[in-house]
Amino acid sequence: MNPSQRARRMVGYLPPLLQSGGRIHRLFDVLAQELGVMEGGLTRLLRSRWYTLAEGFRADDSLAAKAASELGRLGALYGLQPGPDEADTYFRQRLAALVEVHRTGLSTAPALLRLVSLVYRAEQPPDLTWDGDTAVGHFIVPEPPDAAGVPGRRNLTVELHDNPPTPAMARFQGMPADQRLLTLNQGLDPALPEVSLTAPPDADLRIPILHHHESGLDVLFLGSVPRGKTLTLRHQRVPLIDGNPAPEPVLLAHPARFDDSPQPLRFDTDAARFSVFDQDQGLPELALGENHWSHGTLSKKDLENYLPGGRNPALEPARRKALELALEPRQSPPADILFRWTEVTPATFALRIPVDYVPPQAEGLPGLVRELTAALNHGRASGVRARIEFMLKLPGEAFAVQDGPANVALTTTFAEPSSVEDSRLSDALTSFGPALEFQEQLPEPQDRLSWSGIFDTTRFDSSRFDK
């Protein structure tokens, strides 16, 4: 309604006697003009406060000009600032998406991935799928223009993982025998450790034993660790000495035997029964919280208590070899010990991003990490830690080798086409000389622990010796 129409309407509300007055008409014309000015100002105010109608900016404007625009001031109310080379079209989408995230709720996987997609300036809204407990976000992001000036587009995948696994370790150097060692499992679940024992440069570790105080279990290696070498014990896997498989077995045993008396008994006591004795290369489990360990070596007498003669034919060769290595009295030199395990980190989530893509507006990978960290800190719940991990997904690859008396042919096939014209890359070496064939086999031990002897009618795990 223009001022003339508004003035005529106001005059029409008057009695007929007053409608003919000239001064009355001039008065209502002035009022209509002022009301028109007020209506225009109110319209401009409302338009400036609505993100789709507010005055925007150009992508090449300075950051100061962008922040001073109506759309920039509106975004500042929500803590948003236009970025370099960001057009007002995407800034309006980013503003609407942020308000929607706040309305639907933060600290959820969809909300966090939505905030991440805004940092990448991805097309909205992104696609979200689940791979088990991992939230996977699929984005379409811009790429720098090609030689012809045409901007590109790329599919990007990021992952959000709750309570991610974290490597942990505890190192002890030059620890004497029977010294109590402390490891701390700060995760949510028990963990299976990997233990490395390094012999000193002047002595061998003969029949090393590792004791876990919380479970009361002993780990025995029926071999010798040469001076300066490292023995690596892995749960239910072949032990390694400096990376090479060791043929000697690893036993997991409970050193005490129990009877009706309240005191625990040793192997060689009367009326004793077995508690734990396994030959599956197992290791004790790291309980939550503190775990205490100690190490040493076995003397011949202690080894005979663990492995009496004639009881287990399968272990008899290893037993005889171990008795030749064991010393009486025992000699337990100091050793370097390293515990490695993986913790399930509490109150933490990890964002895994592809390291081979950095959006054009970010100032390199460090700048992208800073922006993502700020977005995650904005959306995370109080007390929850956010961390960023890099990943690089490679296409599937098939590798085939064919050799003959005078040539070696290598063929590589990629699941995705490479940048060259053909996705199959091959190379051949001719006049290579005599054919060479290398074959390496590391079979896992298949022997199972068996025990012979005279027992009563109860099961093996609770049987008593009969003299």
Element layout with pairings:
Blueprint: H1 3-12, H2 22-48, H3 63-68, H4 70-76, H5 88-104, H6 109-119, E1 127-131, E2 134-143, E3 152-162, E4 165-175, E5 181-185, E6 194-198, E7 205-206, E8 208-212, E9 217-221, E10 224-225, E11 230-233, E12 240-241, E13 244-245, E14 250-253, E15 277-278, E16 289-297, H7 300-306, H8 316-325, E17 335-344, E18 348-354, H9 364-379, E19 385-391, E20 397-403, E21 407-414, E22 424-430
Parallel strand pairs: 18-19
Antiparallel strand pairs: 1-2, 2-3, 3-18, 4-17, 5-16, 6-11, 6-17, 7-10, 8-9, 8-16, 9-14, 11-12, 12-13, 14-15, 20-21, 21-22
Number of alpha- plus pi-helical segments: 9
Strand numbers in spatial order across the main sheet: 4-17-6-11-12-13
Per CATH, the architecture of one domain is: Sandwich
Strand content: 25-35%
Low-confidence residue ranges: 258-265, 267-273, 417-435, 457-467
**Arithmetic mean pLDDT:** 79
| Shape verdict | elongated
Structural class designation: alpha+beta
What is the number of E strands? 22
